[in-house]
Amino acid sequence: QVQLVESGGGSVQSGGSLRLSCAASGYTYSSYCMGWFRQAPGKEREGVARIGSDGSTRYTDHVKGRFTISQDNAKNTLYLEMNSLKPEDTAMYYCAAGTTYYSYGAQECAYNYWGQGTQVTVSS
């Protein structure tokens, strides 16, 4: 049974930092692509960052230069280091795992599994 459990959310002031973790179990972690998503009240879910099974990373423009996605395959854990946080980063953050596929030569991730989320609140 696949499980993804997020942790590390909390409340911080603008300019602060948080590190989210996502502990994965129930599947061969290293063979999957992983991602972080977020959803703020009244808004659609947004992809924040993604890391491929080959270690390649991709970020939404809103977080480039501030957030870093990484993983520890030995610990089956995904991380999201968030620096210079802004009030607009306030949202529920979810991790997801999926399988890699290629579309027009570009590597993509089809997400099959989702965690329950961890809340991040940034005050001004």
Written description of the protein model:
- The protein is an all-beta fold.
- Helices cover 0% and strands 59% of the residues.
- It contains no helices and 11 strands.
Strand content: over 45%
Give the termini distance in whole angstroms: 40 Å
Unreliable spans: none
Count the DSSP helices.
0
Strand segment count? 11
Shape: globular
By helix and strand content, what is the structural category? mainly beta
Average pLDDT taken over every residue? 94
Give the fraction of residues assigned to helices: under 10%
Largest sheet: 7 strands, mixed
Radius of gyration: 14 Å
Order of helices and strands: EEEEEEEEEEE
Report a brief summary of the structure.
The chain has strands at residues 3-7, 10-13, 18-25, 33-39, 46-51, 57-59, 67-72, 77-82, 91-103, 106-114, 118-123. The protein is mostly beta strands.
Write the layout of secondary structure elements.
Elements: E1 3-7, E2 10-13, E3 18-25, E4 33-39, E5 46-51, E6 57-59, E7 67-72, E8 77-82, E9 91-103, E10 106-114, E11 118-123
Parallel strand pairs: 2-11
Antiparallel strand pairs: 1-3, 3-8, 4-5, 4-9, 5-6, 7-8, 9-10, 9-11
Features:
124 residues; four-stranded antiparallel beta sheet; single chain; seven-stranded mixed beta sheet; mainly beta; 11 strands; 59% strand
